[in-house]
Amino acid sequence: MTVRSPRSKVIAPWVRTRLRTAPGTALALALLVAVTAFLAAALPRSVDRYGDTGLRQAVESAGAGRTVVQFNAPPDYGAPAPERDAGLRGAALEKDHAGILRATGRSLPLDRAQSASGVRSTEPQEMAEPWLPRPDGLPPRLDVVAQSGLAEHSRLAAGRMPRAPGDVTARTPRVEGAVSTDTARRLNIEVGSVLRFPGVQRDPLEIRVTGIVEPRDPRGSYWSVAPLMRTPVLTVLYGDPELRQYWKGALLLPPDTAPALLGTATEPYRYWNLAPAVDSLHGHDVPRLRTAVAATESGPALQRVREATSPLVSATSDLDEVLAHYERLRTAIGPLVAVAAFGTGTVAAVVLLMAGGLAAGRRRAELTLLRARGGSLTGLGGRLLAETAVVALPAAALGLAAACLAVPGARLPYAVAAAGGVALLGCLALPLRAVAAHRAVGVHTAREDVTAARPSRRRTVAELTLLTLAVGAVVALRTRGTSDGSDATGDQLVSLAPVLVAVIAALVLVRLYPLPLRGLARPARRLRGAVGPRSRARAGRGSGSSVLPLLALLTALTTAAFGGSVLSGVADARDRTALMTVGADARVESLHVLPPDLADRVRRTAGVDDVTVAGISYYARPQDGRDAVPVAAVDPAPYAAHTRRTGIGAFDASVLRAGAASGAGGTGAPAAADPAGAPAPGDGGAEAAGPLPAVASPKVAERLGTRPFPIRMEDGSTVTLRITQVRERTPAVAGDHFLVVDRAGLSTRAARPTALLVTGDDLDGAALRRTVGDTAPVQVRADERATYVDSPLQAGAERVYATAVAAGAGYAVLALLLTLVRAAPERSALLARLRTMGLTRAQGRRLLVLESLPQALLAAVGGTLTAWATVRLLAPGIDLTTMAVPGTVSSPARAALRTDPVSLLVPALVVVALTLGIAVGQAWWTGRRSSVRELLAGDAR
Q1: What angle do CA 739, 744, 749 make, to 5 degrees?
Q2: Residue 177: CB partners within 8 Å, gap ≥ 6?
């Protein structure tokens, strides 16, 4: 009879035993993994979120007139009259609209509620009704629009909705219409008013206003594609030298009355508007959206639309340009954000590896004993993997869930991948480190010593490989920048360049670190007392694998300095652009002459230090038959002082005074007197026999040369100028086309002040506006500066960058704490043993401080130098202009990356202070405790 031995049972399962034995360690690992997973998952979701918000704002700010896809077609004049009339009625247009929606498919997210179809006039008609307003004696001009959905998109303010009188044809004599509340108020139109539109081979078409409507959503696409439907505007008569104005508005007809326009001179056409659904747009879909728009405008989608409606249909939209501008902005900003993401990700990964290394080091005796008793590497690694997976996987899932709740409305796959990477690293850090340390079975390991360690050949090869990658990334970034062309999405290796530079610096410093310690060995032995030699020996007897802590600190310091330099460069670029745009701390400017006492009143305003007067003629025209050039008439001395104070095109006042032009290279012919009777040039005080000196921009100087040239001012007078100096910019005129002259050399009318340049350190914009009143608009530099952060894409990128830098700094501090925690038990035991030999508390503090100081100084000095070198190396390839100012603002110069001293020095000083503070605190705490525990016989510490 065979007796089977019972299967042995595991008395204490490994995972449960370890969790019960060290709950604090498990909780610390779970917290570290959860926080890291949260940050890793929140990053791509935040990028998606600000990208989506930026795209939606870009589409909204562009206006419905540019973003709506418009299909247009003329009436079918070749068809019989009944068919032609029927093709313009509402039912036919709605049927065609449905066919267009089917033909375009779902490639574009559309807002069907704001989309519309209808018929409108091409040529606005002059209205002869005498009761209509005529601001400059010109009659108003009105469009006629018969658009679907009027009742759904408006509410009645007076009267009733217009109705179609049966089957309307091109011969119908009268129809009903409506106007918006703004149109009725500004054009004096009431319910019952009759407007007559000239007919073609027929009597005028009478439109009787039966209702006044108020738009339900005035900013929606329904009303914004043709803004005249809701709001009339004053328009300057084209080509009129007196710039006379007239009103321009629109009448609203029912869709079934559109055939009546065929008998008028309005030249009607059919249209179908497809409004994009702004809330359904996503930044990551821009390439697909651009392809869909191109196919709709001139591709297969347009062909299908023509088959469904009419072969005469054409499509127009500026949506592709809006999407292209957004894509260029995102392409320029993306790599800069990737730099911070890679830096912070590297530091976080190093901290996770250090946490695993710390756990493996604490359990070295346990794992060595298991290997000596026959434990296999596979079994040991599997048990440790199960132990960490039980903690890391739920923690990573919790971090992912928290990121999804904190940053809603973004894609999930990238967040899941990021959190999964964190979980994988958290699970593998301890098993891999333990397996690598216990490949060979042994019961004793030699004491590690930095000064005695010699790098292996494999390490040398790995370091040379990283050096090659770093050099290639830096060269690529310097030569072609963070993006290669307008359609590039950035090179990940280029974005990794700061991290690679930090990696190389860490490896080099680890190799160089033993050299000064070896050099200090002999001098330290000559010192009296035990603190000096002992501290040097302790500094050189640390772990021979100190690359990870140093790598974490250097990467964090480099990323923080790089990020601080980026944010500082962005702020400087915005400040400079705002100053260039305004020309001072505040600007008061009008197209008309300012009151004579306004400058004195502004000077007395609180916070105003000085006021510089200028008269700007934007339409002065040189007699070369080309474009006009803005001419700023100034008082030389105050204006020259203002240029020096602002740093914008500074020059000496003498270059504008009479005689400077002659001294600069010759004389010119006398300027002719003004035929209109205005004072001739020179009557204001300049030499009439010579040209008036002028400061010009480079483009104007290249166009007009250095010879004297006549220029006709806005008041009709002519003055002869000669360019004596060239400056890139000037405060009085925003832009790179200008001339600056002495106002004393101009006629009285041409020299009258139209602008005030106000300076003051504590300028109060509200008080300045109260002083100026309605006289002229006031532009404040601080307000202009504030508008540069309105773009969600730019503001979001800045927030992500700042958060990434802050997180990197936090992980660096954590890496430093992990390094000190690893050495804390050994230090405590050392101090306890030395106190039994007579070491005082003060000597104990000095010992720990001197032991920690070399590594702290190595990290601080090395991090500062690495960060400085990284910024200097990568600055030529990084342009911050796109991130600093909106695309609608012209930046005066390229916003370059510059080193920020605060970002360089403060983090390094924090590292040194924190290291020394922890050393002093540990010495103080150890001195207050009993030494019995540290002196126990057989203690492994």
Answers
A1: 85
A2: 144, 162, 195, 207, 208, 209, 210, 251, 252, 253, 257
Q: Phi first, then psi: what are they for 329, rounded to 5°? A: -65, -45
The SS3 assignment for 241 reads coil
Check: CB of residue 210 under 8 Å from CB of residue 262: no
- Taking alpha carbons only, the member of 216, 798, 264, 911 closest to residue 554 is 911
Residues 6+ positions from 894 with CB-CB distance below 8 Å:
879, 881
Element at 726 (helix H, strand E): strand 718-726
Contact by Cβ (8 Å): 72, 278: no
Q: Hey, what amino acid is at 623? A: Q
119, containing H or E segment: strand 116-121
Q: Do the beta carbons of residue 759 and residue 584 sit within 8 Å?
A: yes
Q: How many CB atoms lie within 10 A of CB 234?
A: 13
First-to-last CA distance in the chain?
56
For 667-680, the pLDDT digits (tens) are: 333 333 333 333 33
Contacts of residue 714, defined as CB under 8 A and 6 or more positions apart, other chains included, come to 617, 618, 619, 620, 750
Burial of 4 (C-beta count, 10 Å sphere; 0-12/13-18/19+): exposed
CA nearest neighbour of 414 among 325, 487, 341: 341
CA atoms within 13 A on the CB side of 591: 3
**What totals of helices (H) and strands (E) does the chain contain, helices first?**
29, 21
User: At 710, which helix (H) or strand (E)?
Assistant: strand 709-712
Amino acid letter, 243: L
Which pLDDT value is given to residue 254?
Answer: 93
Closest CA relative to residue 847, chosen from 862, 833, 858: 833
Alpha-carbon Rg for the chain in angstroms: 39
Strands (E), 256-395: 268-274, 314-316
CB atoms < 10 A from the CB of 111, how many?
17
Task: Classify residue 10 by burial, with Cβ atoms within 10 Å: 0-12, 13-18, 19+.
Answer: exposed
Question: How far apart are alpha carbons 839 and 813 in whole angstroms?
Answer: 31
3-state secondary structure at position 419: helix
pLDDT at 890: 62
- Output the CA–CA distances (angstroms, integers) from residue 591 to 322, 615, 635, 695, 757, in the order listed: 32, 10, 19, 22, 15
Residue 238, Cβ density class (10 Å: 0-12 exposed, 13-18 middle, ≥19 buried): exposed
CB 580 within 8 A of CB 885: no
List pLDDT tens digits, range 326-377. Answer: 888 888 788 778 888 888 888 888 889 888 888 887 778 788 888 888 778 8
Look-up: residue for tokens 């939606």? 56
| CB 557 within 8 Å of CB 908 | yes
Query: Is the entire prediction scored with pTM above 0.70?
Result: yes
In this structure, what are the phi and psi dihedrals at residue 107, rounded to the nearest 5 degrees? -65, -30
> Cα dihedral sign for 793, 576, 649, 592?
positive
* Interatomic CA distance for residues 415 and 43, integer angstroms: 8
Distance CA 69, CA 445 (A): 75
Rounded to 5 degrees, what are φ and ψ at 837? -100, 5
118 in the Ramachandran plot: left (φ > 0), alpha (ψ -120 to 50) or beta? left
> What is the rounded CA–CA span in Å between residue 798 and residue 570?
9
Tokens representing residue 358 in the block: 């710390």
CA pair distance 574, 351, nearest whole angstrom: 36
Amino acid code (one letter) for 289:
L
Q: For residue 568, how far is the Cα from the chain centroid?
A: 14
* Residue-by-residue DSSP string for 54-96: HHHHHHHHH-HHHHSEEEEE---TTS-HHHHHHTTSHHHHHHH
> Packing angle between helix 319-362 and helix 286-298, nearest 10 degrees?
160
- Quick one: tokens of 790? 């309105």
Rounded distance between C-alpha atoms, residue 126 and residue 138, angstroms: 9
Average pLDDT over residues 653-659: 77
